[in-house]
Amino acid sequence: MRNIKLTIEYDGTHYAGWQRQKNVLAIQQVIEEAIEKITSEKVDIIGSSRTDTGVHAKAYAANFHTNSNIPAERFREAINSKLPKDIVILYSEQVDEGFHARYSSTGKKYCYSILNRLQPPAINRNYVYHHKGNLDIEKMQQASKYFIGTHDFAAFKNTGSSVKTSVRTITQSEVVKCGDIVKYYVAGDGFLYNMVRIMVGTLLEVGNGKVKPEDIAKILSSKDRGNAGKSAPALGLCLEEVYY
Amino acid sequence: MRNIKLTIEYDGTHYAGWQRQKNVLAIQQVIEEAIEKITSEKVDIIGSSRTDTGVHAKAYAANFHTNSNIPAERFREAINSKLPKDIVILYSEQVDEGFHARYSSTGKKYCYSILNRLQPPAINRNYVYHHKGNLDIEKMQQASKYFIGTHDFAAFKNTGSSVKTSVRTITQSEVVKCGDIVKYYVAGDGFLYNMVRIMVGTLLEVGNGKVKPEDIAKILSSKDRGNAGKSAPALGLCLEEVYY
């Protein structure tokens, strides 16, 4: 059997996230059904992570095993021909038997987009979180630096998935303003359940003055979810890259 | 009667353009009905221009007259409360009696967005035109400069609206590449029917080598629509600004 890796862009607006579930439509299911149509095989795609309902991805990674003799590079077009417009396979390639989209991953990069102006967005409204109130960008930038390094992120994790440890290493944590769009880029070796959205929610509290930049260190060391901010809405979040 | 100017952002994907028409839904109609709901007056909104089906706007301008005593600045929120999510009033303000969104305008700025890569877009798919083939951006940049200045744009106009003259002055004409997105910015004192889309269609022919940059001058002086490129698809086009 060959092992095929897919790199996938999707608009998560109309899906219940990546992972196949009962009674709702997940991206995994849509792609598995598309592959079944072209290979006549039942496949189980291995995804690099769960993503929440409404979260987007510019380069989600996944893999599946197949006995089909379709050339690896041809899967891209073949699967795309069976997919709706909001899911697109960017690349398909053969990988080593041992490659596992989740366990082989060495890290991920996310981007969270905030539209910071009085009026809600008409254009791009499914891809940005609209925040009306003033934001102190400089303070958010200072605060974002406290996330860099290896920390226990227990305070930045919602219950809902079991993991052995909540220690993660963050290598990039950057707030960038461009016009009325504020983007938060964060990369690391792994992310806990809702971790990026809670980090953004907390940065927003720094932006509106409720939390001081240096408080981030205290929130981290408290390991208490109650001390961090709310989870920012899913629609602003986009998985940008999965590292191997 | 007071004269109220509106600045409007809209996602044109699901509308038959700005102008009210029979049997299809236009943005003008949706906004007129929203205003009627809050003022109980029948209003005729004057728009700064028609826009085609699927074209977007970040700052469309329009005005209407009203006997209502709602403060001018309050119209923004009041109208927004009656609008669907893909149309947003950004500003509402009282203007001089003589202000006319179309006749008072001194110019407009558009942006056309092209996604230049093999794979179609999942994210932002309603806001970019997907062009697979290689594009020579440098040649497109050279070509774009031939549009600057005062020219007869008869070759860059589709039939469908009657205008006295097809002479227009272009003040900005710029091709910018950022990753796999190519943006074309064009500003001028006015635009003919489908003019920007035909300019983009012709720049794409320069990009794929069918037309030389210097041929733009010849196409202009020919005044023959047959010599210019096809109209580029509407969805990549966005009205960025209306000047007064």
Topology:
Two copies of one chain form a homodimer.
Chain A: E1 2-10, H1 27-39, E2 46-47, E3 56-66, H2 75-80, E4 87-95, E5 107-115, E6 129-130, H3 137-145, E7 149-152, E8 167-178, E9 181-188, H4 195-207, H5 215-222, E10 237-243
Parallel strand pairs in A: 3-10, 5-6
Antiparallel strand pairs in A: 1-3, 1-4, 2-3, 5-9, 5-10, 7-8, 8-9
The SS-based structural class of chain A is alpha+beta
The whole-number mean of residue pLDDT values of chain A reads 97
- The counted number of beta strands of chain A is 10
The CATH top-level class label of the largest domain in chain A = Alpha Beta
**Rg over alpha carbons of chain A:** 19 Å
The CATH architecture of the largest domain in chain A would be 2-Layer Sandwich
What is the chain-wise order of helices and strands of chain A? EHEEHEEEHEEEHHE
Terminal CA distance of chain A reads 22 Å
Overall shape of chain A: it is globular
CATH-defined fold name of the largest domain in chain A? Alpha-Beta Plaits
Q: What quaternary form is this?
A: homodimer
How many DSSP helices of chain A?
5
In which range does the helix fraction of chain A lie? 10-25%
Largest interface: A-B, 22 and 22 residues
* Unreliable stretches of chain A: none
CATH homologous superfamily placement of the largest domain in chain A: Pseudouridine synthase I, catalytic domain, C-terminal subdomain
